[in-house]
């Protein structure tokens, strides 16, 4: 596989697409479904400013930086992500229910990344055993950078997607969704198509493989508005996939139509549009994301769009050993 300008454009599209979907969806979060003809506009919301992304992309950036510094397959990368999450949550404007419940259980010595990581994992397991519904979309929404760390080979992607999910979301459905979506993004960056999603599903155990095939095939034929509510990981990934596969456009038109559809469906709009934007952005590249949106996105840690582009480029370059 050749690392060329088009491939780097698609790698940047994964992170920029995620951030644009997030910033577009935030002002519509928990709103009612919108009519198909309703205009979807980038605007300030009750908590976030115009073009500002939210916890989804904050955490994706933390994971991307951790992977770039230490390699996604290392414990140090997981410890770095845990440390960044913990630092970030002290001033975060909004954190998902499951993730904030995990953080609330941590009493660790913050100066010790290993201890913090261990406590976060324990808190996540405790949350899972205390709550029947622990299948939130809070790890799927931040999985995009992991795909960029494995462009030169699939080995290790499943374990990395699983480990980073399990920092806060340990359910099988959560890490499997993270892995499938990461494979989809990886394939979109490498090959410019969506086949990676099915390659990812094929790597799972036979029972999970059948389940996921059914879920994603069903998403292609189901009215996207049926995927509301969508705070749970399965309805989130199904909506994101429905929005992409049921959008009869290509290039910049598909990017815009797919993320707008996620927003129109309502409920957890920043997260569904972020998940969708990460894949459709990877498929068509940063250059096909509307510049009037991408030029104004910004968020933690004082990043603008060019910082996301640099992070994505560096992850892709490091993946190819450059
Ligand atoms: Mg959010």
How would you characterize the overall build of this protein?
It is built from 15 helices and two strands. It is mainly α. A hairpin with a 3-residue loop joins strand 1 (298-299) and strand 2 (303-304). Strands 1-2 form a two-stranded antiparallel ribbon. Helix 1 (5-25) runs antiparallel to helix 13, helix 2 packs antiparallel against helix 3 and helix 12 packs antiparallel against helix 13 (269-284). The protein has one domain: ADP-ribosylglycohydrolase fold, CATH 1.10.4080. The model has no long low-confidence stretch (mean pLDDT 95). The relative contact order is 0.20. The chain has helices spanning 5-25, 55-70, 75-89, 97-104, 113-130, 144-148, 157-165, 172-191, 196-202, 206-221, 233-245, 251-265, 269-284, 291-294, 305-319, and strands at residues 298-299, 303-304. 61% of the residues lie in helices and 1% in strands. The longest helix has 21 residues, at 5-25. The protein starts with a helix and ends with a helix. The radius of gyration is 18 Å and the shape is globular. The site of magnesium ion has 5 residues, from helix 2 and helix 13. Residues 54-56, 270-271 line the site of magnesium ion.
In short:
This protein has helices spanning 5-25, 55-70, 75-89, 97-104, 113-130, 144-148, 157-165, 172-191, 196-202, 206-221, 233-245, 251-265, 269-284, 291-294, 305-319, and strands at 298-299, 303-304.
Which features would summarize this protein structure in a list?
1% strand; 15 helices; two-stranded antiparallel sheet; ADP-ribosylglycohydrolase fold; mainly alpha; 322 residues
């Amino acid at each position: 596989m050749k690392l060329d300008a088009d491939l780097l454009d698609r790698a940047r599209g994964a992170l920029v697409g995620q951030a644009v979907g997030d910033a577009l969806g935030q002002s519509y979060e928990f709103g009612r479904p919108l009519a198909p003809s309703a205009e979807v506009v980038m605007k300030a919301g009750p908590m976030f400013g115009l073009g500002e992304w939210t916890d989804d992309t904050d955490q994706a950036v933390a994971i991307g930086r951790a992977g770039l510094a230490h390699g996604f397959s290392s414990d140090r990368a997981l410890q770095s992500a845990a440390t960044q999450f913990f630092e970030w949550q002290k001033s975060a404007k909004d954190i998902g229910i499951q993730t904030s419940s995990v953080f609330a259980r941590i009493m660790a010595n913050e100066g010790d990344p290993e201890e913090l990581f261990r406590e976060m994992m324990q808190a996540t397991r405790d949350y899972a055993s205390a709550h029947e519904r622990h299948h939130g979309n809070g790890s799927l929404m931040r999985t995009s950078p992991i795909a960029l760390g494995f462009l030169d080979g699939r080995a290790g992607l499943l374990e990395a997607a699983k480990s980073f999910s399990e920092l806060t979301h340990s359910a099988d459905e959560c890490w499997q969704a993270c892995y499938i979506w990461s494979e989809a993004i990886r394939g979109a960056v490498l090959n410019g198509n969506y086949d990676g999603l099915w390659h990812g599903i094929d790597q799972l155990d036979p029972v999970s493989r059948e389940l996921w095939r059914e879920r994603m095939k069903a998403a292609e034929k189901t009215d996207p508005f049926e995927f509301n509510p969508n705070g749970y990981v399965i309805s989130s990934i199904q909506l994101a996939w429905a929005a992409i596969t049921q959008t009869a456009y290509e290039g910049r038109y598909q990017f815009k139509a797919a993320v707008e559809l996620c927003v129109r469906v309502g409920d957890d709009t920043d997260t569904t549009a972020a998940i969708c934007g990460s894949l459709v952005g990877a498929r068509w590249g940063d250059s096909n994301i509307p510049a009037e949106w991408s030029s104004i996105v910004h968020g933690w840690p004082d990043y603008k769009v060019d910082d996301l582009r640099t992070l994505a480029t560096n992850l892709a370059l490091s993946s190819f050993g450059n």
